[in-house]
Amino acid sequence: MTTARDIMHAGARCIGEDDSLYTAAQMMRDLKVGSLPICGRDDRLHGIITDRDIVLRCCAEGRNPAEMKAGELAQGKPYWVDAGSDVGKVLSMMEEHQIRRLPVIADHRLVGMISEADLARHLTDEQLAHFVESVYAMK
């Protein structure tokens, strides 16, 4: 059985909820990623921030990324998957919620992230086609 741990990108790093979007953008650049999990003072997952979030919800609204905090973009309940979950659960969660990145948790701690690139490397062509159709379908 292929698990979330088998297909995830290990070593994901969090941005703190009190860190600025400027710091988040620098981390994304340095890590060569398009998103970061947002972790709270309680060391728990509070959400995910994307490069697109910074552009649309900060810069495009005339706000200063050096002053706006990552936690301001953490809205709603974050979706995540347990590291031992099978790839079917990963796919169904990402498809159901139409999300492109999924944090992987083990023992209440972030251990990795699953992105579309990770799926492309580990899924069959049929599984990948179904995922793309489900996530990108206009609803």
TrEMBL record:
Keywords: CBS domain. Transmembrane segments: none annotated. InterPro entries: CBS_dom, CBS_dom_sf, Diverse_CBS-Domain. PROSITE patterns: CBS. Pfam families: CBS. The keyword Kinase does not apply. Residues 8-67, 73-134 form the CBS domain. The keyword Zinc-finger does not apply. CDD domains: CBS_pair_HRP1_like (cd04622). Gene3D superfamilies: CBS-domain. This is CBS domain-containing protein. It comes from Saccharopolyspora shandongensis.
